[in-house]
Amino acid sequence: MNIFAETIAWLADPKHWTGTGGIPTRLLEHLQYSGLVLLIAAVIAVPVGLFIGHTGRGRVVAVAVAGALRALPTLGLLVLFALLAGSGLMPPVWALVILTVPPLLAGTYAGISSVDANVVDAARAVGMTELQILFRVELPNGLQVMFGGIRTAVLQVIATVSVVAYLPLGGLGRYLFDGLVLQDFPRMLGGSLLIAGLAIVVDLILAAVQRMVLSPGLTLDSRGSHKAAEDLTAAAPAGAAVQGGTP
Amino acid sequence: MEWFLANSGMVLGLAGQHLVLAIVPMVLGLLISIPLAQLARRNSTLRSVVATATSLLYTIPSLALFIILPTILGTRILDPLNVVVALTIYAVALLVRAAMDAFDSVDDDLRNAAVAMGFKPMARFFQVDLPLSLPVMFAGLRVVSVSNISLVSVAALLGVGNLGFLFTDGLQRTFITEVVVGILAILVLALLMDAVLVVLERLLTPWTRAAGGKSSGADATTLITEPKSGPGLPHAGLRTDPGAPG
């Protein structure tokens, strides 16, 4: 029990909330790394996912590549990139991008291809161009499923960025590794709670955004789409684990 | 390659530890998940509780969990038990969903037929429900297998012995070969485990081939959710695949 009291004391200590090693700074670093990784990964994964989802072409290749990427151990890839490309921010970021592309790609693809083929055909029949179909029909209708993939990817990145501190960079993971070296358990436990808390809060925010962004028509929709959404929110964490990305 | 040959004993030893740390939680997770899923299927309140709890558990990063658990369990931070418990939690979170989907995939007509033939509830569960749910169950197991093998290496950061040691050691010595050997060893391990699960599934579900239809293995290899997949493929939620088997 003692350690819990010490951890709370550590978290409550105003000294830990200021300066370069303070919690707000580390939190900001954590969010910056995560944001950078997600941005690069999204620039790569979303267009490819949209293309595959819309045309159905290249599906087999994408599945094979994404599958192979999923089996890669996060830690190994981070260390390899750090050794090959030297220290600094970008090597680990690229390693994390490689691990983040599969869930984003899978989510985007799954979202687009989850849209009822009849709806797409109807859009084509009323004379919409392919791009209009993609952005005005498939994207809004597939958004619910797509959010599953997005949330998986975001959670995974927030979790994995903790490992970056090992390389060593900043972020909330600093507290874990510094605490380990110093045998300072309140610091480690405090850091862990902060990371877990951050992951949960960000996921809740995304859930709220999902509710706001979704077309109201979808929530009134048949049971079918509800089922799909449920499956995906449940599968979201599963995907994260598959990545080996929840360190 | 030379380094690997010179140190093959060490690598194999670490691989053994790695395998134990990955397989034990998977088996424990399965043993916990099957009764839990069976209970949750009968009770809709429990079902939603399980669904929420499992997604919440998954948001906890594993490195954080490896550190939080010792204070809850009273173990030392280096104790491999922490890793086993943490990975069991993740395995349960995943397998409960998979098991519920798996039991849902069993045709109700078959259940009724078994009851009509005089199967007692227990016998029906073990001789009808469980075997028929295996294809979907195995899809879940294969996901857990890859994820565990990958996650175990993270525990090396805290000093728990496994193939992840090759990463931490390689970084300290700036020795790329060691890191590459580690990555390859983990990939091989993941593929081997996946192949074992595929073979096991084939052995345990001979009827899926006899029927000449789609083999369940083929469904399981679909990486991405196929919400429009045909009837009888209810595990669209398992949007996951370990990679090309074999």
Automatic annotation (TrEMBL), chain A:
Domain of life where this protein originates: Bacteria
Localization, UniProt: Cell membrane; Membrane
Cited InterPro entries: ABC_transp_perm/SBD, MetI-like, MetI-like_sf
Keyword Transcription regulation part of the UniProt annotation: no
Record's keyword terms, sorted: Membrane, Transmembrane, Transmembrane helix, Transport
PANTHER family membership: GLYCINE BETAINE/L-PROLINE TRANSPORT SYSTEM PERMEASE PROTEIN PROW (PTHR30177), POSSIBLE OSMOPROTECTANT (GLYCINE BETAINE_CARNITINE_CHOLINE_L-PROLINE) TRANSPORT INTEGRAL MEMBRANE PROTEIN ABC TRANSPORTER PROZ (PTHR30177:SF33)
UniProt protein name: Osmoprotectant transport system permease protein
